[in-house]
Write a structure and sequence with these properties.
Length: 258
Amino acid sequence: MKFFISTIDEQDAKQEANIIKNKLISYGYTYEETSPDIVISVGGDGTFLRSIQKYYDVNPLFANINFGNLGYLCEYSTKEVDELLNDLLDEKHLEKKVSLLEAEINGIKAYAINEFRVEAPQGSTLTFDVSINNTFLERIKGDGCLVSSSIGSSGMSRSIGGALVDNEIEMIQFVEKAPINNKFYSSIHSPYVLNKDKIITISNIKPSNVWIYYDCKSWYLEDFDGTISFKISNKKIRFLKNKRNNYIKKTREAFLND
């Protein structure tokens, strides 16, 4: 069994990663970066997202330990390193499969677990049309838009007024970013939570230079004249599930100051 460990550039995290590495090697595992069967991230949510972007096509089992700040996406805390190793070595360990979001831009596809954001450069506004399953919904003028998964609903989506969605629900959410509402432009001005089979398309984007941000990556489209579609992908990632993890408790601890 081959494994790789991705870590943040902090001494405590690196030391813990080295301990995990040596333990797994002593159990007969092989450390290998190119095509690992297991990818362990030791850091925060960003470390986990970068690991997914690098390895989702390899289809490893992802495992994550929070050595960052919030660590909302991380299944294991810094106090649960032994539990992670025990769960990993247990043949009956729990795994969870999560569908990735897919964006298609002029035939080119990109994937994310959290969200895609479409924004104009240098703080200007965008005007664009929104359709759901090829049915026109609205024309928006504003800072842009965001499309999130249920897992991503706790991130930037929540910050701009999106719904916080239970991560057991497979859905796709569309959120307008600072839309203008006047006699010339009006929109639903509300997060729109849609069934997982829906495809969201934006078109007629003006101005034609836009940024696409997704998880820890970005993509600049210059002189763009096409459509951008978003949907729940057939691609899935697998991650090690911590049976001791309670998402309701974790949500309270992450977002409420007790």
